[in-house]
Structure prediction request, 509 residues.
Amino acid sequence: MTDGMTQHSPHTDTGVTCTETVGTEPLGTEAPGYLAYADRVWTGEDTLMAHFEGSYAGEGLVRVGERTGFFPAFANVAVFDTGPEGLVMVDSGEARTADRLYAAVSAFGGSGREVRTVVHTHGHIDHVFGVGPFDAAARARGTATPEVVAHEAVAARFDRYTATAGYNSWINRRQFGVPGIEWPTDYRYPDTTYRDRLTLRRGELTFELHHARGETDDATYVWVPELKTLCTGDLFIWNAPNAGNPQKAQRYPEDWARALRAMSALGAEVLLPGHGVPTRGAGRVATALDDCAGLLESLCTQTRELMNAGLRLDEVIHRVQAPAGLLDKPYLHPAYDEPEFVVRNLWRLWGGWYDQNPAHLKPAPERALAAELADAAGGAPVLARRALRLLAGDEQRLAAHLAETAALAAPEDREVARIRAKVYAARAAAEPSTMARGIFSWAAAESAAVAEGTDVATELTRTEEGRRRAAGAISVGVVDEDACSCGGGSEGGSEGEAGGAGRDGGTVR
Prediction:
């Protein structure tokens, strides 16, 4: 289907057998094998929908290699049997799957195989909220709780999350259409932290922890050399890298690309991602990591060149283009984040918040400017109706500008509100990424509430799909099973993180 894919048959390049699960309810009797399914996702013959819907979760762990169990959920967990020193978990998932994870891991370990160490690849809440049952069980036994190991910046992230819980609640409600999201303020802090690298020897296995800035400043990837297995955390997520999220903290695309190249050089034969399905076979692993790095490197190079040429941000974001073909790869669909947002994030990282438009340096209040523009046009309804004509002509971006200006100038005008709702609903329907779709859907609901005399929650839940999302159906991306192999419904969420099963949504990251 794409370069580096068709040369690998589903089983001959992996060195790993397709044993199903080692839990109490083995998979494979009622559904195709998970690892065979993962191979089909790689080749583009299947989508990630089944993974995110929990079709392969069962009651146990999928065995993906010697000593290795895999908990396939929205946010994945890897479990390693070290022999005499018990189990090591990489990540612990989110709150909703915590009890199920505990049961699955307990069955995997068997008698005397307790979880002794948990490595968190970063501090997003869909990756760190599954330790509780293991702590509780240890206390009940009168033994030490698992040692939680993470990068030193994870604690600072938890502090920030607590201090900005209100803000994080609002942006994640908007991003995922879930009015009831409340950001958590109680976190399980790491017991052991490191700065650059840390090697843990546990029983018969070695765990090499490497710090990398990417989606977060606290990211860790874990290399287990004896098993040639790589746990990437969210440095690889079976989507275009989440390097531009418009409502979240700074991302680091250039550092991220370097980390991907470093991981590729390890020669891993098994890649266990933070989200999505495992990748098996050295050729496939290297291809996926190198393609992901190449995408980020190209965006960085193009953005830097245009900034160096003195262009405004407006010109830069409309000139930079992803390399041909990369976004078509099954593991690089822009279903959550998208390149345009990555460019904006690079501008913020390298150039600050000023976009080179002098009028934006010390602007008038938006409502005052909107009132002047509406007056010059003959009134807010005139602007709004012009927005409708632009929308009909497939000029969605321009239509949104005019509809937004009209609504700012006349916030209580029901005709204007109906038009703004129609414009943003159309924009949401046309967007491929969770981030854009969520923001536009929330804007449509705001105006629909003005027009109908209701509230945002009512408007968000008028459809079955909206009710499912509002109940916590958060996932990565939108899935059109006829068109792509990007994300789907889930039982988790991230950087915030809630979960459920649904067609669209996104990690709360």
About this structure: Residues 1-32, 475-509 have pLDDT under 50 and may be disordered.
